[in-house]
Specification:
By secondary structure, the chain is α/β, with parallel strands linked by helices. It is about 40% helix and about 15% strand. One of its GO terms (molecular function) is DNA binding.
Length: about 190
């Protein structure tokens, strides 16, 4: 954020039409590639690129991307209009909105239908999801699809790791060492 005054980008709602809610999400706080600081930096850049400012942060830490945005603890109340006025959402990427095509499209179309902005880092300007702009709609859908495919890959890796952990190996399959019980450490029980 070289040359940008952060106080100008983060300020209260003022009805200017570009008062954006920052949407950050991480399934696990230890993921360095989507760190909170990096997401914040990307969103400040994206908000500034459209002449907007951030009025607050919907930080859903430890929340899976598979969770419907409308039911997330921090973002959900904003989407249900329980938190106050805002003019749109800004996120570091489409996958920070969610990792499900339907959830991303529902959130995007909610913003469109309510005349609100949807901005993500790396996309020029706000997303225009009107039916008259198929290329933009298709790109948004493809990014949401990519996020969903990544979720499936993550889930597959977790399942495979669980199966591998539970599968006995030759080293763990035989009689167990009984050091504490017999004082005969380093040997196996007689078979």
């Amino acid at each position: 954020m070289r040359g940008t005054d952060l106080d100008v980008i983060e300020r209260p709602y003022d009805g200017c039409g570009k008062s954006l809610l920052g949407v950050r999400r991480l399934s696990r706080m230890k993921l360095a590639t989507s760190s909170p600081e990096r997401q914040r930096e990307d969103m400040l850049t994206a908000a500034a690129s459209v002449g907007g400012h951030i009025i607050g942060w919907a930080d859903d830490w430890g929340v899976s991307g598979a969770t419907d945005p409308a039911t997330r603890p921090k973002l959900g109340p904003w989407l249900r209009d329980e938190r106050g006025p805002y003019d749109g959402l800004v996120a570091a990427a489409v996958d920070r909105l969610g990792r499900n095509v339907v959830d991303c499209l529902n959130t995007g179309y909610k913003m469109r239908d309510e005349g609100k902005l949807l901005v993500t880092y790396g996309h020029d300007g706000p997303w225009d999801l009107n039916d008259t702009t198929p290329p933009t709609r298709n790109r948004f859908t493809m990014e949401a699809w990519g996020a969903q495919m990544e979720l499936r890959a993550i889930q597959r890796r977790h399942r495979n790791a669980t199966v591998k952990t539970r599968t006995p190996t030759p080293r763990t399959a035989g009689p167990r060492r009984h050091c504490a019980a017999t004082g005969n450490c380093g040997t196996r029980e007689p078979t």
